[in-house]
Amino acid sequence: MNNIILASKSEVRRKILEENGIKCKVLPSNVDEDFVKNSLLKEKITPEIISKNLAELKANKISQKEPNNIVLGADSIIDLNGQIISKPSSREEALKILKKLNGKTHNLISSVCMSKNGSMIWNFTDKAALTMKKMSDKEIVDYLKKIKDESLYAYNVYQIEGEGRSLFSKIEGDENTIMGLPIKQIKEYLKNYE
């Protein structure tokens, strides 16, 4: 299958691509996501559009440096009733985020974008709804003790493919979307692109 460039340092995304027979070279875009998110939030842009714009920005940035290659950019956002929850940068922040999500349903939005020669050629956005169990503060602290730092900061507080599954009473949506890469649609696009 196609060789593409993945504009993300996410190990999970790389693994999903490779498990699906898509060879990729990893070139992280290093886009300042918080700056972009904050400026778009000031414009009252929806979480779906913010996720799509970030995926496109990442793909286009690397695509300009790698002409004639297909570049895949991806972004995932947690949307709690219109409020965007960013990745934690400390364990204290992770605890606050989990307390905020505790007992509530939130949407996880994942967007992907393919770019070539610096411009978007395809994009897709999907959404999953996750309902977190009602947990005591002690249960949340105990959960966080099980999570290694690199996982905690890379996967929006929970790893659905690992320990994170235990946090939820209900999950509606595609598991690959939750892990940050709606692979079925990517494969479909690449098959038609060849």
Kindly describe this structure.
This protein is of the alpha/beta class and 194 residues long. The protein has a single domain, classed as Maf protein. It has helices spanning 11-19, 33-42, 47-65, 91-101, 137-146, 149-154, 175-178, 183-193; strands at 3-6, 23-26, 71-80, 83-85, 105-116, 119-132, 168-172. Strand 5 and strand 6 form a beta hairpin. The longest helix is centred in the first third of the chain and has 19 residues, at 47-65. The protein is globular and about 50 Å long. The model has no long low-confidence stretch (mean pLDDT 90).
CATH class: Alpha Beta
Count of helix runs: 8
State the domain count: 1
What is the radius of gyration? Answer: 17 Å
Give the CA-based shape: globular
Mean pLDDT across every amino acid position: 90
Unreliable runs? none
Distance between the termini: 9 Å
Strand content: 25-35%
Order of SSEs: EHEHHEEHEEHHEHH
Helix and strand content put the structural class at alpha/beta
CATH architecture: Alpha-Beta Complex
CATH topology: Maf protein
> How many beta-strand segments?
7
Give a nutshell description of this structure.
By secondary structure, the protein is α/β, with parallel strands linked by helices. 41% of the residues lie in helices and 27% in strands. It has one domain: Maf protein (Alpha-Beta Complex), CATH 3.90.950.
